[in-house]
Amino acid sequence: MAGNFEPKILGIFCNWCSYAGADMAGTSRMQYPPNVRIIRVLCSGRVDPQFVLKALELGADGVLVAGCHHGDCHYVKGNYRAERRIALLKRMLQQLSIEPERLMLKWISASEGAELVQTVEEFVNILKELGPSPLRKTG
Amino acid sequence: MPVKVMFVQLASCWGCHQSLLDLHETLADVLPQLEIVFWHTVVDHKLHDVEKLPDKSVNVGFTEGFCRTEEDLHLLKLARQKCKLLVSYGTCSTYGSIPSLLNLYPIEEALSRKFKEAESVVDGRIPDKHVPKMLEYVKPNREYVNYDLFLPGCPPEPPLIAEVVTSLLKGEMPKLKERTLCDECPRVKSEVIVIKKIKRDFEGIPEPEKCLLEQGYICMGPATREGCGAVCPSAGFPCKGCMGPGPNVMDQGAKMLSALASIVDYESISPEELVNAVKDVVGTFSRFTLPSSIIPKAVFKKK
Ligand code: SF4
Ligand code: SF4
Ligand code: SF4
Ligand code: FES
Q1: CA B303/CA B299 separation, integer angstroms
Q2: pTM score, whole prediction
Q3: Which of B21, B104, B154, B277 is the most exposed place for a label (fewest CB within 10 A)?
Q4: Is-contact A74 A16, C-beta < 8 A?
Q5: Hey, what CATH class is A9-130 in?
Q6: CB B102 within 8 A of CB B96
Q7: At A35, is the pLDDT very low, low, confident or very high (cuts 50, 70, 90)?
């Protein structure tokens, strides 16, 4: 099982930066692992912790939230909010005996297609190391 | 004709039933209208008395507590079978409440802690004779049976109980208020809140009129449903969330976590400092609703 385990990742990306970054990676034909399914939101500050928990409950092996660098958020402080929510969520996951590493937050700008590819690769490796989510209903 | 009622106690602290007695004089009006067919903590009824009742022969049943043992579950199902109308009475019954924070631990570990490792125990052993089997973790009662009405509160406040009981006696379905606790809280709130320091409940003396959350106390008002009359913030104490989630909230804990993260001053409180200030995230934000949360229990590793 562990050998060919392919983690399922939900990406929740900010429209103005990381989503555009993913677009750029795509249009520049950069290769990145197909493990991530991306949902676009208008700002990382719009990521409701309930979405993250729901994704994990439904069996996602990891959730990657990506937004604009500090100072670049279109709504000024959205990314500061996201950062604090994710920190609290990680503690919540830890208390629920779910590895907090299954939740990742990154700042990726619209021009950072390469960073995006690298982040996804890095996250896939972390998740392969951790194995399937304990909340997965089936293998 | 008196209304037939039954009061069922599952795993609970009896606080909800206690709150019923806090109706005081109102009880004097209500009691003569009731025929109590089962209330095993107060009247000498046995389980087989309930089993013998014809189905749907009881007008209203109230359940306090959640199912921790197979016997609780049996009683809950019986109550559903025998009652025309079933009321989930209190937060244990409705969302799980504080005792179900035990969902953070496997039941074997909890039993061992209580019966063998507790400091007061000498030569302890886990009881296994003449006791019902424990269930692995707490699920909300509504996952086992259907309810006609939910009356949350840990315990429900007497005026709320009076409202419900009075309507039921008139043969009407009570309509409970469902806005957010902050909507019924008399404290003065500003448009924009920015917290520079998170205070523990015991730190300092809160200003008498200003919103407690604005003063840095973790008040669960924004994630909690109204109905208790905002008794705690009115008395100067932050709401702990016992009425359960407010309108359109799936997960009370996640909602409050989100709300708090968006009102702290980013220059004064870093993400790490925020986590350290809260410490027990589940116990603070999901104190009353863990079994009803999106992730209702910890993952128990198989040995
Ligand atoms: S809801 Fe609260 S008062 Fe009622 S039984 Fe449970 S713990 Fe006790
Ligand atoms: S946060 Fe608490 S004190 Fe402030 S308005 Fe809401 S319930 Fe009242
Ligand atoms: S103020 Fe909060 S904790 Fe107090 S009774 Fe109301 S809901 Fe429960
Ligand atoms: S707009 Fe990109 S994080 Fe706020």
Answers
A1: 12
A2: 0.95
A3: B21
A4: yes
A5: alpha beta
A6: no
A7: very high
Are B148 and B138 within 8 A, CB to CB?
A: no
Mean pLDDT for A90-110 is 97
Topology of domain B3-98+130-169 in CATH is Rossmann fold (3.40.50)
Which pLDDT score, from 0 to 100, does residue B302 have?
67
Interface probe for B, chosen from A50, A52, A107 (most Cβ of B below 10 Å), is A50
Determine whether the shortest distance from the Cβ of B189 to ligand 2 is under 6 A.
Answer: yes
What is the distance between the alpha carbons of residues A52 and A32, in angstroms, rounded to a whole number? 23
Using DSSP, state whether B247 is helix, strand or coil.
coil
| Per-domain residue ranges of chain B | 3-98+130-169, 177-297
Q: Name the residue among A40, A65, A38, A36 with its Cα closest to residue A53.
A: A65
Q: Which residues of A touch B (CB under 8 A)?
A: 45, 48-50, 53-54, 56-57, 77, 80-81, 83-92, 95-98, 134-135
Q: Which residues pair with B69 in a beta bridge?
A: B134
∠ CA B26-B29-B33, rounded to 5°: 130
Interface touch B253/A92, C-beta < 8 Å: yes
- Overall size of chain B counted in residues: 303
- Please give the full DSSP string across A108-138, using - where no structure is assigned: --TT-HHHHHHHHHHHHHHHHHH-S-TT-S-
What type of residue sits at position B90?
Answer: G
Contact indicator for A96, B282 with CB cutoff of 8 Å: yes
Q: State the pLDDT at residue B301.
A: 78
Per residue in B150-188, pLDDT tens?
999 999 999 999 999 999 999 999 999 999 999 999 999
Residue B267 to residues B136, B194, B301: CA-CA distances in angstroms?
44, 11, 40
Ligand 3 pocket check for B242: Cβ under 6 Å:
yes
pLDDT band at residue A3 under the 50/70/90 scheme? low
Chain B contacts of A96, Cβ < 8 Å? 104, 282, 295, 297-299
Pocket test for ligand 2, best of B179, B180, B182 (most atoms within 8 A of CB): B182
How many whole angstroms separate alpha carbon B217 and alpha carbon B198?
6
Q: What is residue B250's DSSP assignment? A: S
- Assess whether pLDDT exceeds 80 at residue A139: no
- Give Cβ neighbours of residue B279 (< 8 Å, ≥ 6 apart): none
> How far away, in angstroms, is B235 Cα from ligand 2 center?
12
- Residue A138 pLDDT > 80, yes or no? no
